[in-house]
Amino acid sequence: MEAYFDNSATTAVYPQVVELTNKIFTKDYGNPSSLHMKGIEAERYLSDAKERIAKILKCDKKEILFTSGATESNNLSLIGSYLANKRNKNTLITTQIEHPSVSQVASFLEEMGVNVIRIPVDEKGIVDTDSLYDALSEDVFMVSVMGVNNETGVVEPVGDIASEVKRRYPDIIFHSDYVQGFSKYKLYPSRNNIDLLSASAHKFHGPKGVGFLFIKDKTRIKPLILGGGQQNNMRSGTDNVPGVAGMALAASLSFENASVSNANIKKIKDIIKDGLLKMDGVCINSPDDEICAPHILNVSFMGVRSEVMLHALEEKGIYVSSGSACSSNKKEKSSTLKSMNLSMQRMDSAIRFSFSENNTIEQALYLLEIIEPLYNQLKKFVRS
Ligand code: PMP
Asked: What is the pTM of this model?
């Protein structure tokens, strides 16, 4: 049996999305900037895609910018707002648990002279809002807080934080990396005082290399990619029509299915969590259900290094991730688990299981059947 439990790293593309993108690749392949019929047809795909996503976010079509994924959306959010506001503001507030596509950009800006404040989290991974509000000032151009952490699944109260930030300083731009939350939760950015919201198609059964950034109307932000002036000069380059259309269809499908698939995903997670908790030496690193996304479960198998467990499971056809799959620097300890103050041993043995609607209860039971003898065997090996 095969069990792919690494859906926070990426997901399988919906067959309907494959069908649609195929049609665009091979038949409706025009460049939306062309003035002839093929171009107009391609432009219609872009316009429809914007409409679909705007409908989901309850925002205006013109507030959606297509990008090459969340890494670009996050880079644009932080650097673009800095460039637009640097004349009179020089402080960026973010958190200690951001994805590298935010944290590395923050460090880059710091090297350029920006004052970066990284807000700590508690032992559950929830951002310390008192410290965050204390750090606010007229000098802050942006507050960036992720919606759902990709390693533990902890859900940050971004709507509440954004609203409080705006109440105190209406000019501060509020950004949220919402990659792991989109399609799991219905968060309407405008209604929640969020100015910028990043998402990525391949996390919700769309294609890789395409994402979007919600940019609230009138937000002060500069483009990073200059050229032919596509997307109202905010992001030049020939539009990725198949990717964008595929993403929008995937977004619609995942939202249509959300309540059923979230409930199924949660059932699978519960079966696995309950089974693992019966085993000696297992610690759950994800927070309690009320503040955790349904699709992520981070667990430490004490005494067995993450990579050892990962490859042992792989041999049985079970695919998981150690810490964050998105970090290319595998030697570095997970910033999220470190910020939660977990022991070195617990961090070294952390495994992330992440689920999607494609997973089944049979797969969960298969994992539980495999993992106890496997863990006992690996533990023995470590001791000898
Ligand atoms: N932010 C988070 C929280 C993520 O999980 C990821 C993907 N691993 C990204 C940003 C980057 O997204 P992309 O792969 O679209 O660049």
From this structure: 0.96
